[in-house]
Design brief:
By secondary structure, the protein is α/β, with parallel strands linked by helices. The protein is built from twelve helices and ten strands. The protein has a seven-stranded mixed sheet, sandwiched between helices. Strands 6-8-9 form a three-stranded mixed sheet.
């Protein structure tokens, strides 16, 4: 943990906190740095914009990359939850208004980011999700987009969108099918169950499971190990894109199905969304108190 304390901090983006070592080899990005009473740790538009904006700022053009230099991006959270998923409050508003353009714009913005995570910010970055609190819906999709998922014990992880008649449409199916069978992926999506991180590890969704409080040190050690053989991990980024591709067009095609499904939801489903929003808000206020 002492290494983390020595990291230089950047405060460019208000909803995230970033720590970077002096050599720039790793970027620790903590979501929900603005967490407070009533602030839901979910994929609010401003959070998405800050995460993707920071990722764009550290993405190097091919001519800028040093041959054999591997970098890391660690996606974590300052809130008690990793991320509780899409902005259901916004979804309900846009669906009631029949605003397909804005709903598709939000979805496209999400796809832009998860695809960038999945492709390693152009190829020279190994992306790691550090899950120390619940990862649900779109929050889990962000983790699934990363090359490696490190989770602490006792964390809830799941895709509960079926509770309000929807499905996770920003990469869950595509990324899950790289970790479990398509049949198992469909079962997880249609069942809406929230699994423990221990169960997710046994299924092969979580790559590394560690005791509570040991997530950061486990990721630090992983980064040290990978930096010993950077050429291998850089090559694996290329191999993965060839042998296990998830194309942008695939992700966009699925998210358009998501948008059209969302716009067809009735009042009962929208009221369920709004109840979940109120529950998330109460949870945030309670934890802040």
């Amino acid at each position: 943990m002492s290494n983390i304390e020595k990291l230089q901090r950047t405060h460019t983006f208000p909803t995230i906190r970033v720590q970077v070592p002096a050599d720039g080899s790793a970027h620790w990005l903590y979501m929900h740095a603005d967490a407070g009473p009533g602030t839901r740790p979910c994929c609010r538009s401003e959070v998405i914009d800050d995460i993707w904006g920071y990722m764009a700022s550290i993405t190097l053009r091919e001519a800028q990359r040093n041959q054999g230099r591997l970098r890391h991006l660690v996606l974590a959270s300052d809130a008690s939850a990793f991320n509780l998923g899409g902005d259901l409050d916004l979804f309900a508003q846009l669906i009631r208004a029949g605003d397909r353009e804005r709903l598709l714009g939000y979805a496209r913005r999400c796809i832009d980011g998860v695809h960038h995570l999945h492709t390693g910010l152009g190829g020279d970055v190994h992306t790691i999700a550090l899950v120390q609190g619940d990862a649900l819906g779109g929050g889990l999709e962000m983790a699934l987009a990363c090359h490696t998922i490190v989770a602490e014990e006792g964390v809830g992880m799941g895709l509960p969108e079926v509770l309000f008649g929807l499905f996770p449409g920003m990469g869950a199916y595509s990324f899950l099918c790289k970790r479990v069978s398509p049949r198992q992926a469909e079962k997880m999506i249609l069942g809406g169950e929230v699994y423990s991180s221990e169960e997710m590890y046994r299924m092969g969704v979580v790559d590394v499971l560690v005791p509570k409080g040991q997530g950061e040190s486990a990721v630090q050690e992983m980064i040290r190990q990978q930096q010993r053989i950077p050429h291998s991990y850089l090559a694996m980024n290329q191999v993965r894109r060839i042998g296990q591709p998830v194309s942008y067009d695939e992700l966009m095609g699925i998210t358009e199905v998501w948008v059209d499904t969302a716009l067809a939801l009735g009042d009962k489903s929208l009221k369920t969304m709004e109840r979940i929003v109120r529950a998330q808000t109460r949870r945030s206020a309670s934890e802040a108190a």
